[in-house]
Design a protein that fits this description.
Length: about 375
Amino acid sequence: MVVSSARFRRALLSCAALLTAPVFAETVTLTELPVPAGYSVAGVANIATDGTVVGVVWPDGLVVRWVPGADPEILGGGLTFTLENVMPLISRDASVIATTGWFSDGSDKHAMPEIWQGGTDWAAVSGLTLGNASPYGISADGHTLAGGAFPVDGRDGAPQQIPWIWTETDGQVALGMMQNTVWGEAWAVGDDRHTAAGFFEAPSGDLTRYGALWTDGVPSWILDGDGENVGQAIGCNSDCSIIVGAGRDAASTQAWRWTQATGVEFLGEVEGASPDAMYYAFESSEDGSAIVGSYYTIDPMLGAVNRGFLWTARDGMQDMVTYLANHGIDYGDGFSDLVVCAVTPDGRSLLINGANADYLRQRAVVHIEADEAIFADGFDVVPI
C-alpha cells in the first residue's frame, strides 16, 4: 500500500504528539490526627488553607482544633448538636470558627450560631431575626454565615425551615422560598454575599432535597441539561461560581458540579460500586478541578456505610481507599465508615473522617504534591 506524503506526515505528527504527551506524577502522604488528651473519640469536619482542621470531641460535643505541628486544642463551644462532617465551620485563613450553640433567654434555651472568640470563649451572633437557627456554611473570607432556621413562632405551618445568610453588618437575612416548598436551607455562600446555595424540600411528606441557588436572595432551581432538578447543593468556591452537590434520589444518584459557564456536570460513579449508591459532593477546590465527598451504599457485612471519593478533572471519580492504595498507602480498607469531607482551595490537602472496623473514629489529612511532569519519551520537562 502506498501512503501519501501528506497522510504520512500527519501520521508522524500524531505519533510525535503521543510520544511527547506529559505523564503526570504525584507524591501522596497521609497524616493521622491524634485524639486530644483526655478523650477517646473525635471527628473532623473542615480544613483551612494552612491545614488547620476543626472537629468535635465526644461525648461532650466540644469543638477541637488541630493546627499543623501542634497538639490538638479543645476550644469549647455551646454543647449542642453537631452535624457530623459539616460542623464546625472554618474560614480559609482559619481566623473564624463557627458552630451552633445553646443559649438561654431566661425561660428557655435556643439554638443560635456562635463564633469562637479565642481560648474557650464563644459568643452568639447578633442581629438574629428568626427562630432556632444553625449555620451550615461559611464564606471563604469568614464574613458571612449561611444556614436554616425555624420561624419565630415555631415549626407549625409553612415554611417550617427558612434559609438565611448572616453578616455582622446586616445581621440575619431570610432568603426567598420557592413556591410550594416547606423547608429550605442554605449550605454555602460566596464572599460577596450575592450568591448562596442549598436546597428546598417540597410538601406532602416528600423529603427529597432539590438543589437551589439564591442570587441577591431570590431563589432558583439548579437544573441539569435536561431541565431536571439535581440534588442538594452542599458547597461552593469563594464566589459561588462553582457549586457542588449530591444525588437527588434513586433516579439521579450521581454527585454533580455546576459552573456559571457550563451548567451541571455529573461526576460519574466509582468503578465497581453498587449501582444504587448515592453520591454526595461536599467541597471543591477553588477552580473546581478537585472535588471530594462520599458515596452511600449497603455493605453485605456492615449494612449502610459511607465510602469516600476523590474526583479530579484529569482522572474522574476514584474511591478514596483505592486511590491511597495505588499510592502505596494502606488506610481505610475495612473501615465501617469513611468520608472525604473537605479539601483545601488548591486541591492538595484532603480531610478524611472515618471509623475503623471497631467503629472507633479515625481522622487523617491526605497531602498531594505534584511532581514535575515527565514526558512519555522518558525525558523530564526542560525549561527554555
